[in-house]
């Protein structure tokens, strides 16, 4: 499994996102193209909330504002995935973009189907995404290989010099899996969620339970045993 170092700024882990209401979200096309050789592994790019976004950013000069949202996905039993590309549906507020850099982090569950992410297992920073008016499409520098299990993913915009507005990760009104999680270690937004917690119900950040993203890559599943005329799987009777 691909791994990388924990991303840090200053003294602590740069933990990343928050929610805000956008006055009037700009109309956007939902990206649908998949490059040859890749397939859609996980897709929740539907049911967007009308005018809401979740701040997902590192503020280089104001680290107390750093916050992070993460949403979950499942690699099916007995399957293995290689994730090559991720699409994040987002929007800009008081800023036109493009975002200078983003970071992607994947987390494993601390326990089977825990309500919040566990330890990071893969982090890639300094990515320059294809930026479609706030919707990011980016290849991972090193494809991530995952076996069956429950995982979480987050994206963060690095806001430094020249980035005066905000970027929001669009919310999804229909729950898929578990509700998304959120944290703001510096408690700048006064939610009390300095550790991971359910974003909407516990932290009261945003109005919808999930976030919009899609994973693309390759999947390997074990072959289905042949079914013989007597209705038994596997080797023919008497073999």
Quick structural overview:
This protein has 239 residues and is an all-beta fold.
Question: How do the helices and strands line up, and which of them pair or pack?
Answer:
Elements (H helix, E strand, L loop, with lengths): L7 E2 L2 E2 L4 E4 L17 E6 L3 E8 L1 E3 L8 E21 L1 E4 L8 E7 L11 E8 L2 E3 L2 E25 L6 E7 L8 E3 L13 E2 L11 E2 L1 E8 L19
Parallel strand pairs: 6-12
Antiparallel strand pairs: 1-2, 3-5, 4-17, 5-13, 7-12, 7-14, 7-17, 8-13, 9-10, 9-12, 11-12, 13-16, 14-15
Q: What do you see in this structure?
A:
It is a single chain. This protein has one domain. Helices cover 0% and strands 48% of the residues. With 239 residues, the protein is mainly β. The strands form 3 sheets. Strands 4, 6, 7, 9, 10, 11, 12, 14, 15 and 17 form a 10-stranded mixed sheet that branches.
Determine Rg (CA atoms, Å): 19 Å
From N to C, what is the helix and strand string?
EEEEEEEEEEEEEEEEE
**Total number of strands:** 17
The amount of helix comes to: under 10%
Total of DSSP H or I helical runs spanning 4+ residues: 0
Which ranges are low-confidence, i.e. pLDDT below 50, for 5 or more consecutive residues?
Answer: 1-30, 230-237
Helix- and strand-based class?
mainly beta
């Amino acid at each position: 499994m691909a791994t990388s170092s924990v991303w840090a700024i200053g003294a602590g882990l740069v933990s990343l996102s928050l929610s805000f209401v956008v006055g009037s979200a700009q109309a956007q096309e939902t990206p649908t193209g998949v490059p040859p050789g890749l397939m859609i592994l996980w897709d929740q790019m539907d049911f967007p909330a009308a005018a809401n976004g979740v701040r997902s950013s590192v503020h280089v000069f104001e680290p107390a504002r750093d916050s992070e949202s993460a949403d979950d996905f499942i690699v099916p039993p007995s399957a293995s995935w290689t994730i090559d590309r991720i699409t994040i549906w987002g929007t800009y507020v008081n800023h036109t973009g493009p975002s200078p850099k983003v970071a992607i982090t994947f987390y494993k569950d601390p326990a089977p189907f825990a309500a919040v992410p566990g330890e990071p297992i893969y982090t890639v920073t300094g990515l320059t995404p294809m930026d479609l008016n706030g919707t990011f499409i980016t290849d991972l520098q090193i494809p991530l290989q995952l076996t069956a299990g429950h995982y979480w993913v987050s994206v963060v915009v690095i806001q430094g010099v020249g980035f005066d507005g905000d970027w929001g990760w669009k919310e999804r009104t229909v729950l898929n899996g578990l509700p998304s999680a959120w944290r703001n270690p510096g408690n700048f937004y006064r939610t009390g969620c300095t550790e991971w917690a359910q974003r909407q119900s516990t932290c009261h950040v945003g109005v919808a339970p999930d976030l919009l993203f899609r994973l693309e890559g390759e999947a390997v599943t074990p072959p289905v045993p042949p079914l013989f005329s007597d209705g038994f799987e596997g080797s023919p009777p008497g073999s």
